[in-house]
Structures are given as structure tokens and as C-alpha cells.
Amino acid sequence: MICTAAFALSPLQRNTFKVLPSSFSFLHLRYAALCYCTINGKMKSKRRPDHLERTANDFRQEIISKAKVCGITSESETVKRLRLAVTNKEFTFKAGQWVDFFIPGVAIVGGYSICSSPGLLEQEGVLELAVKYATHPPAHWIHTQCTLGSEVALRVGGNFFFDPQPADSPANLVLIAGGVGINPLFSILLHAADLHRAQANKGTGYKMGTTNLFYCAKNTHELLFRKHILGLTNAFPGKIACSFHVTQQSLPICGKLQPYIKEGRISGNDLEKCISQDTLWYICGPPPMIEFIVKLLEKLGVAQNNVFFEKWW
């Protein structure tokens, strides 16, 4: 996203001033001055685009809600999981979407996929994020300064989501994740489980097909949410299945994980058994992985309008 004149605010930021808590207004002005200045329509720096720039053309809700950190856990050695109590009762999201993450005193806005289900927000008024350690200011704050009771603000955005309506035709899902790209796909997986429960308990709502998760990481310790994922496969046999792939495993694999682990990257042989006209494919991970999988699915004859992906870095 590039402004047309030095120190001008983009339409996104002008809209932000209307709804942001007043304590964040100066931060956004400072951010605009530092990061969005242009000369003759060109960026001054060749630096990597930040979250607001990369997502400037994506959908965003107008609602920005204050939120309080009510839980912090270590999902892995490098990933912290935040539980956030959301203040605004009108705040909603669709499984797969992300949030703009506003931190008091931090000029740069973070962007993180929600890793919990919409149902959790509806029932308990909370959502969850899983953030990998980095020197990028928002991630660094989460890992070094964030504490229980810390206050932030959130705004939902994103065009990558699974939000079926009750009258929609049943579809099968294939979720393909690489590294921390699991976050939005885990939200979709949890939402699929919620839809299965609604059908089983009430006989109402959208009728889910099968859901297959393929998740690739360097080693089993970097497979986030693995225990919860296995719990879902046990709770919904024949409806939810998973396949974990590791590329640099050096330690022995524990017995409980072994039946679900494959050495090496996700391949066409792994995916072709899931192909059908009623299958929707959701992919999130590093851009090279996404490009490889998209080309692979095209070679396998998958209709490209059934393939959806989210690139985060």
C-alpha cells in the first residue's frame, strides 16, 4: 500500500481513526509518517512490506475492539499462544481470518491469524492467537513484554475463510499447512468439528463432509496443536483425519504420533486420494510451499476455483 503524497494517510488509515480507541491515534500517525511516506509514488526503502501494506486490499471489518490477555501458554519452544477476552460484543470473525493487532506503545501493527473457532468467541467471548518469536516489534512484544492483563485492540480482516451456510451443499475439506501456517487452518478444523457436533446434537446447521489435514513441519516438536488435532481425529473417526509430515526429524518419534507421521514433504501421492468434485482445498504456509502445492493440484486436475490459499511471509 503506497500513499500518493508524503505524510498522506491511506483510506485504510483514515477509516481507522474513526473507530480506533483514542490512545492509538498517535501511534497510527507516527506509523504513517515512518512507513508510508512516498516520493513521486515510490517507496523510499526497499524494505519488506509490513502487514498493513500486504493486506491493504483485503477485506476489513470496521469494528475495532479492545481486548485483554487472559491466558498465555507456550505452544512450542518458539511459539506463544495468547488467549484474549474481547470487549465488544459485536466483534465476530470467520474461521480462517486474521486480526490487526494494535499494541499500546508499539507503532507497528501486527497481523496474526486466529487459531481458535468462531464458536469459542460466541460461547466464551475469547479468541486465541499463536505467535512465533521474531524481532518484529509486535511479535517481540508478545514474547518479551506481554503479561496477563495486558490490553490490546483487535480488528478482523481477510478473504481466506470457511463459512458455510446451512443451505449450502456438503463439501469435503483438505487443509494443507506448513509451519505456523497451521493457525488459520486449525481454526477451520475446529469450526468443522463444531459443525459436526451441531449436526449430531441438534440435527441442524450445515452438514459437513470429511476433513483431511496435511501438516508439514521440520520436526514433531514444531507440529503445533498436535495433541488437540489427534483428539479431534479420535472424536470424529471417518470424518476428521490428519497426516503429519516432518522434514528434519532427528529424535525418535513417540509411539502415539508414529501412526500419523510421514518422513518428507507432502506429495501428490498423499493428496490424490482426496480429489473429488466436492472437495475444497485450503493452503497456508511459506510462499514457496504454497506455489508448489497449487501447481501440484493443477497437475492432478483439481479445479482452481476450489483452491484457496493464504500467504503470510
UniProtKB/TrEMBL annotation:
InterPro entries cross-referenced by the UniProt entry: FAD-bd_FR_type (IPR017927), FNR_nucleotide-bd (IPR039261), Oxidoreductase_NAD-binding (IPR052128), OxRdtase_FAD/NAD-bd (IPR001433), Riboflavin_synthase-like_b-brl (IPR017938)
Any Pfam family matching the protein: NAD_binding_1
Swiss-Prot/TrEMBL keywords: NAD, Oxidoreductase
Record PROSITE patterns: FAD_FR
Record domain FAD-binding FR-type: where: 56-165
Domain of life: Eukaryota
PANTHER family: OXIDOREDUCTASE NAD-BINDING DOMAIN-CONTAINING PROTEIN 1
Record-given protein name: Oxidoreductase NAD-binding domain-containing protein 1
Naturally occurring in which organism (per UniProt): Phrynosoma platyrhinos (Desert horned lizard)
Highest classification ranks of the organism: Eukaryota, Metazoa, Chordata, Craniata, Vertebrata
